[in-house]
Automatic annotation (TrEMBL):
This is Alanine racemase. The keyword DNA repair does not apply. Catalyzes the interconversion of L-alanine and D-alanine. May also act on other amino acids. It holds the Pfam family Ala_racemase_C. The keyword Isomerase applies. Its cofactor is pyridoxal 5'-phosphate. Pathway: Amino-acid biosynthesis; D-alanine biosynthesis; D-alanine from L-alanine: step 1/1. One of its GO terms (molecular function) is alanine racemase activity. Keywords: Isomerase, Pyridoxal phosphate.
Length: 367
């Protein structure tokens, strides 16, 4: 049976995006970020495609994600960076996964797991999330130098993350580069010179060559989504995901018919309504009620009424639609993920990463 709702992931488009982004930083290695199930696109499949496209590194947030890559057969360089106290650093190290230390205390915990782990150090240059800041960085540098001298850890990298790279003219970008350069110099003065320095995310890869350094980390752009809808660049990025669904019901209704919970939409004319069998249980944002659109053939059909847990209704006008016809929620030939983000008052990252529930994923271009 064909799926009632389907997220079609085009791995050829994904590979093309990886190649496009790599060309923007030709002197840097590339890390394909596949955290959060590859931003909702399917981590195992995208990880394999990234390697096929030449990605030297894969990046994930958690140890669990990194171990899932290993279980799927990946043997290349992998970095993870988000771990609470008590994380399974021993398993990560045993699997050859590189982990991140954001404080001297965390580095001690990693080392205590044994087996001379490969560790990258994260410095907080102004995002104020993870990473060592100020005196914390000085303490982490000292601990890293001691660990390297004692042979209890191999310090392989130092990195940070931009807060405003999707606004290339924002003064925070220059300031974060300056702080990062000083942090690396402090590390070198302590006798630690990791092979990898990395700072650039997707937006900086596209717009900030000075920050490319030894490695760039590409996430959202690799899935064909602009890091910010206002970010200007000349890269051709191909949308990787198309979300489609079959109409579960079609009905002709008279003017004055109200739709869905709360009757927040009422037909001003006789029209045809189509029922799309996905809702907020599948990650369709309820805040896009009465604002989102789908594509039906060559026309756009607006969402009418409140998006429900399992379904939402669209206005098909006078189209001769029938049950089983396919609508494109977003993807080539229809609205974009960013169109839905605008309708919902959010960003395209959230639109794709939250998809789940009863949506089936289909992968095209697997090798």
């Amino acid at each position: 049976m064909p799926p009632q709702a389907e997220a079609i992931v085009d791995l050829d488009a994904y590979r093309a995006n990886i190649a496009t982004l790599a060309a923007y930083a030709p002197n840097s290695a590339l890390m394909a970020v596949v955290k959060a199930d590859a931003y909702g696109h399917g981590m195992p499949q995208c990880a394999r495609a990234a390697r096929e496209a030449g990605a030297a590194w894969l990046g994930v947030a958690t140890i669990v994600e990194a171990l899932a890559l290993r279980a799927d057969g990946d043997t290349g360089d992998v970095l993870c960076w988000l771990a609470s106290p008590g994380a399974d650093f021993a398993s990560a190290t045993a699997a050859g996964v590189e982990v991140t230390a954001s404080s001297a205390e965390q580095l001690a915990e990693i080392i205590a797991a044994g087996a001379r782990p490969k560790v990258q150090l994260k410095v907080d240059t102004g995002l104020s999330r993870n990473g060592a800041y100020g005196d914390q960085w000085t303490a982490l540098v000292a601990a890293a130098a001691a660990a390297q001298s004692a042979g209890t850890a191999e310090i392989t990298g130092v990195w940070s993350h931009f807060a405003c790279a999707d606004e290339p003219a924002h003064p925070a970008n220059d300031e974060q580069e300056r702080v990062f350069t000083e942090a690396v110099a402090e590390l070198a003065a302590a006798g630690v010179t990791p092979a990898l320095r990395h700072l650039s995310n997707s937006a900086a890869t596209l717009t900030r060559p000075s920050a490319h350094l030894d490695l760039v980390r590409v996430g959202i752009a690799s899935y064909g989504i602009n890091p910010d809808r206002s970010l200007v660049h000349d890269a051709t990025l191909l949308p990787v995901m198309t979300l489609q669904a079959e109409l579960a019901a079609v009905k002709r209704v008279p003017a004055g018919t109200s739709v869905s919970y709360g009757h927040t939409w009422t037909a001003e004319r006789e029209t045809t309504l189509g029922l799309v069998p996905i809702g907020y249980a599948e990650g369709i944002l309820r805040t896009a009620s009465n604002k989102g659109q789908v594509a039906y053939g060559d026309q756009r059909a607006p969402v009418t009424g409140t998006i429900c847990m399992d379904q939402f209704v669209v206005d098909l006008g006078d189209a001769s639609a029938q049950r089983g016809d396919v609508v494109t929620v977003f993807g080539p030939g229809g609205p974009t993920a960013d169109d839905w983000a605008i309708a919902a008052g959010t960003i395209a990252y959230e639109v794709v990463t939250r998809l789940g529930g009863r949506i089936e994923r289909t992968f095209r271009g697997e090798r």
